[in-house]
């Protein structure tokens, strides 16, 4: 199958996701935003629909529809709600998929099914106050042995999305304080463990549907059976998790950019200025043309990355390409939408104001690796300094969708 030719299955999946977003999410967005409540029910229903389980074996509750179908679903949900679309990272990729790739059979059986079925909420915690893009190298959170059957975690994590409302997460800490990246280990942490405390991070963005938290760890005991892979494997686990997680980032960005374009088109056909529809002015048409082509290009880059993942190939290069370009595309689309709306772009009278698209556009340029980090990776790969796909990205389980 060419990435340019979606199958009938892909089209059915898209229609299912679009109908769900418009019927189950859109009518409730204003209420959720006003009450600042996290929509547990809709996450559970998305799990029941199999939206989170596309890349998981049937034996663990997945649908085995594959990465391309995951990207399609993620795009359609995000087109209606960037916040709910953001749950795909924790519920489909960086938490359950990381456990699937690196966990023991017991860990997989215990944690993966409830996450992808939406029964439990996941979180992923790598970043700390003193380290963003070099989170592993500058990590200060410690994991010390507590007898033969446990670890005590102590430290301060930052920007852990959903941690304060989650049940289970993947968290990284130093088991060897003297080592750098090789001293990092990964743990499955349950949020009801003593010594695990969260504090919501206030933001300028209305992130009620996808809040971010800092985590304060004080003698937080984790059973040794919750060590993910071996001690010292944490950096590899994290990079692998982010590589797969970077499929949902561009898919979501494309969905939000598509929403910007659709709103711009509606406004251009409704708004009359000087006796002409706004869309009849050539400068406005230029903005619409740029949005249209850039979104289509970002979509194809995202689908290419998903397509190669479905073939089991290393895709660090393609993940960086799609994440970088899709985030830039959303940024341009949100800026264009604001320019088309003019003064009304700052108004809060709409159910989903233009200002929120601008805020989300800024967030997409920083999450899962900021744009300049992607540019470094891409340029060093192109210049021949470092082959971006030099690592064999781990994917343990074949799916029915594999080509």
Could you give the topology of this structure?
Layout: H1 8-25, H2 29-35, H3 40-48, H4 67-80, H5 82-85, H6 87-93, H7 96-102, H8 105-116, E1 122-125, E2 142-145, E3 150-161, E4 168-174, E5 184-190, E6 196-200, E7 212-223, E8 227-228, H9 234-245, H10 248-270, E9 272-273, E10 276-277, H11 282-310, H12 316-341, H13 354-364, H14 371-383
Parallel strand pairs: 1-4
Antiparallel strand pairs: 2-3, 3-7, 4-5, 5-8, 6-7, 9-10
Helix pairs in contact: 1-4, 4-10, 4-11, 7-8, 10-11, 10-12, 10-13, 11-12, 12-13, 12-14
Describe the structure.
With 403 residues, the protein is an alpha+beta fold. The chain contains 14 helices and 10 strands. The protein has 3 domains: 8-116, Orthogonal Bundle (Butyryl-Coa Dehydrogenase, subunit A, domain 1), CATH 1.10.540; 122-233, Butyryl-CoA Dehydrogenase, subunit A, domain 2, CATH 2.40.110; 239-383, Up-down Bundle (Butyryl-CoA Dehydrogenase, subunit A, domain 3), CATH 1.20.140. A hairpin with a 4-residue loop joins β2 and β3 (150-161). α1 packs parallel to α4 and α10 runs antiparallel to α13. It is globular.
Which terms would index this structure?
403 residues, globular, four-stranded mixed sheet, Butyryl-CoA Dehydrogenase, subunit A, domain 2, single chain, Butyryl-CoA Dehydrogenase, subunit A, domain 3, Butyryl-Coa Dehydrogenase, subunit A, domain 1, four-stranded antiparallel sheet, alpha+beta
